[in-house]
Specification:
With about 400 residues, the chain is α/β, with parallel strands linked by helices. The chain has 2 domains: about 1-50 and about 95-210 and about 370-385, Rossmann fold, CATH 3.40.50; about 210-360, Glycogen Phosphorylase B (Rossmann fold, 3-Layer(aba) Sandwich). Helices cover about 40% and strands about 10% of the residues. The chain contains 12 helices and 12 strands. It has helices at about 15-30, 60-65, 70-100, 165-175, 185-195, 210-215, 240-250, 280-290, 300-310, 325-335, 350-355, 360-385; strands spanning about 1-5, 35-40, 105, 120-125, 150-155, 180-185, 200, 230-235, 255-260, 275, 295, 310-315. The longest helix has about 30 residues, at about 70-100.
C-alpha cells in the first residue's frame, strides 16, 4: 500500500507546517507503510463563500506606505537584509525537506493532480489548517481522488470556531465519502458532528506523535548560544508583545533571540536588544526552543514544542486570527496548562506571568501518552483492510 499525503508543506517556509509533514511521514513509515508527501505547492486559495472571490486593489498598500513613513524608511534600510533572510530561509527549508521528508517524484498542479491516482492507493489530507474556510482549496478535501481510493484526514484543522450554513453544507459534500475523518481540535469534532452531520475523531498533531528523544535524534547537541535567552516567536508581532518580552528579559537578565520576518516585513523584529541567528532551518527552530530559558509565542507549533521539551512558556493572543485561540486553548487544556495562555489584558503583563509557577509536566505526560496511543490506533484502523465499520 502506497500512501500519498497532501498538506501545507511543499515549498512552504512555515516551521510548524514542515515539521508536522515530516512527523506524519515518520510515524507512518515506522508503521511499515510506503508514504510520500505530494509535491503540491500552496499557492491557490480562495474563501469558501457564496460570494465570488475578487482580487484586492493595491491602492491600500500604497496608502499604507504613505501614511507610515517610519515603516517605509525602515523597510528601505532593511530591504536587503529582509530579502537575504527570506532567500536563506527558503534554501534551508528546501534542504530539510530533501533530507528528511519523503516526497513524490512529480510536481503536481491543479491541472494534473488527478494523475496522482496512478501512483497512490490511499490519500491522507492533513495535518494543519487544510480545512480553514478562508484558505479553501478543494485539493485539501481530496477532490482529485477517484472513487476507488481510500480518503482519510489526519488531524485536519478548521482554524475556525464555527462554520456558516453554506460552509457546513459544502463540508458535507466534500467529506461524506471519506472512509475516516480525524481533526486536531475537539471543537472541530463538535462542529463536524453538530453542524455538518459527520462523525470525526480528535487526534494529536503529528509533531506530538514523536517523543522528545525522537526529535533529539535529528538534532545536533551543540547549543544555539552559550547565553541564557528568551526565544521570541511571533507570527503576529506587535509593539505591545515586544514591550512585555523586553520587560521580562530585563528583569531576568536574559538575552532575546528571534526568527525575524515570519509573516512579512515588520519593525518589531529590529532593535539593539533583539538577536537573530544565522541558521534558520526547521532544526534550528526546535533547537531554539530546546535551549531557551523561556519562550514567548503566539504560535501553535511553538507551543507544541515548548510542551514536548518541558519548557517554561507564555502564549500571547493574535488579534487578526481569532481561530488561533481555540487551537491553542484546546492544546493547553490537554496538558493542563491553560494559565499559560495570556489572552486577556489582566494576563498579558509582567505581574501576571511572573506570578505563575513552573509548568507541572508529570500528569501532562501521562495524558500525552494516552492520546498518542489513541491517535496511532486511529491511523492503524483507518489504514487496515477492515477500516472503520
Amino acid at each position: 500500500m502506497k500512501i500519498g499525503i497532501i498538506t501545507h508543506f511543499y515549498k512552504s517556509i512555515n516551521y510548524g507546517g514542515v515539521l508536522q509533514a515530516f512527523a506524519l511521514c515518520k510515524v507512518l513509515t515506522d508503521m511499515g507503510y510506503n508514504v510520500e508527501q505530494l509535491r503540491y505547492p500552496i499557492n491557490v486559495f480562495g474563501k469558501m463563500s457564496e460570494e465570488i472571490n475578487t482580487s484586492t486593489t493595491k491602492m491600500s498598500s500604497v496608502f499604507f506606505h504613505i501614511s507610515r513613513p517610519y515603516y517605509t524608511c525602515t523597510r528601505i534600510i532593511y530591504n536587503k537584509k529582509y530579502n537575504n533572510k527570506i532567500s536563506t530561509r527558503r534554501k534551508s527549508f528546501g534542504r530539510f525537506s530533501q533530507d528528511f521528508v519523503p516526497m513524490s517524484t512529480t510536481d503536481y498542479s491543479e491541472v494534473d493532480l488527478s494523475f496522482a491516482n496512478s501512483e497512490f492507493d490511499v490519500f491522507i489530507t492533513g495535518s494543519d489548517q487544510v480545512w480553514n474556510p478562508d484558505w479553501y482549496n478543494p485539493a485539501y478535501f481530496l477532490s482529485f481522488a477517484k472513487e476507488n481510493k481510500r480518503k482519510i484526514s489526519y488531524a485536519a484543522s478548521l482554524g475556525k470556531s464555527q462554520l456558516t450554513k453554506f460552509q457546513a453544507k459544502k463540508f458535507y459534500e466534500l467529506l461524506s465519502d471519506f472512509s475516516a475523518i480525524s481533526v486536531r481540535e475537539k471543537n472541530a469534532e463538535v462542529i463536524l458532528k453538530t453542524s455538518v452531520g459527520l462523525n470525526a475523531t480528535t487526534v494529536l498533531d503529528p509533531t506530538l506523535l514523536l517523543k522528545k528523544e525522537e526529535w533529539d535524534s535529528i538534532l545536533d547537541q551543540e547549543r544555539v548560544t552559550e547565553e541564557k535567552f528568551i526565544f521570541c516567536y511571533f507570527l503576529e508581532p506587535s509593539t505591545l508583545k515586544m514591550q512585555l518580552v523586553k520587560e521580562y528579559a530585563k528583569e531576568k537578565a536574559l538575552s532575546i533571540y528571534t526568527i525575524p520576518f515570519l509573516n512579512g516585513f515588520n519593525t518589531t523584529d529590529i532593535g539593539h536588544r533583539i538577536k537573530w541567528i544565522n541558521d534558520e532551518s526547521p532544526l534550528s527552530f526546535i533547537k531554539l526552543i530546546r535551549d531557551a530559558q523561556i519562550i514567548f509565542t503566539d504560535s501553535f507549533h511553538a507551543t507544541v514544542f515548548s510542551e514536548i521539551y518541558h519548557k517554561e512558556f507564555f502564549v500571547l493572543p493574535r488579534s487578526k486570527q481569532k481561530g488561533m485561540s481555540s487551537r491553542v486553548s484546546n492544546l493547553l487544556s490537554v496538558f493542563g496548562h491553560s494559565a499559560r495562555f495570556c489572552d486577556t489584558d489582566e494576563k498579558c503583563n509582567y505581574g501576571y506571568i511572573s506570578s505563575l509557577e513552573l509548568p507541572e509536566n508529570q500528569e501532562a505526560d501521562l495524558k500525552l501518552l494516552d492520546m498518542r496511543r489513541n491517535s496511532v490506533e486511529f491511523l492503524k484502523v483507518a489504514l487496515s483492510e477492515e477500516g472503520f465499520t
